[in-house]
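re: that chain from earlier
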Amino acid sequence: MKLNVDPSVALYVLIFAAVFTAGQAAWGLMNVGVAKRTVNRRLATAERASGLGDLVLELRKQRGLSADGKSIFSWAWFSDLVMRSGVVYDPRRWAMVCAGVALTAGVAALVLFKNPLLAIVVGIAAAVVSPIVYLNFKAGARAKQLGLQLPSALEVIVRSLEAGHPVPTAVALVGRELPDPIGSEFGMAADEIAYGATLEQAVGRIADRCRQMDIDLFAATIRLQERAGGNLTGLLKMLAHTVRERQKMRLKIKAASSEGRASAIILTAAPICVFILLQVASPHFYGDVIGERPVQIGLAGLGTWMFLGNLVMRKMIDMRI
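^ sequence. v structure.
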């Protein structure tokens, strides 16, 4: 049986394969470049610094801290958010980005609604809300990555101690060998130890900057060992095992609650998608009655009921250990 294939179809398939391969290659190169820049960010800072004191001050400045390690922000929640996000604090760059976001949102609102006052309000709201949303996203992703990298960092410290290295050298080894974010955090701790801080103080500052549960457990272990004594290598081995088991439990919980999360997403998105489709396909379906009081009360009630349902479903699937 002879199979006839249109040459144009084969050509389109080859073009698609070539474009897809090129896109994959570009994406891989971009990821490698970003990873290298991220890994070498602290090392590049160390190369620019003239001494250990300048390096410690510059690293603290990048995290929104003053020379003595205190926050430069008056709002505690915003200071905590900036530190947890790991985003380099650059006031001029942040101001330019916020201005660009405000201008873009304002112009878009002006084009859509033809209302200058509303455009100004939307621009200001976007300039205030979007940075907070971005910092929250970065903080969550960074906390997750810290939890994944901590067992490897503890194992590096354990092997270094078993080889006969002192504790500051073991901590500095993590800062040199492991990628961000754990590499930069332990590198800052090693610099602070060399600058005169104790191991307990340096690890406590890591916990203050990261605000991550496993990092807090690590800091509590170091604090207990410093005050009560004991085998630090054995404690760190046990802690690395405990953190890995906690991660396995979190993954099991995530798999067990995946059906509930999918149901929550579908049940939330379905009414919104239907409303948008009706507005596009038949604008008068709600447009003719949207001004009626019973319709407004009904829609408000439905929105409130959907919000409460999401809270209940989140409570059912949000399990923490």
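The CA atoms of residues 33 and 269 lie 36 Å apart.
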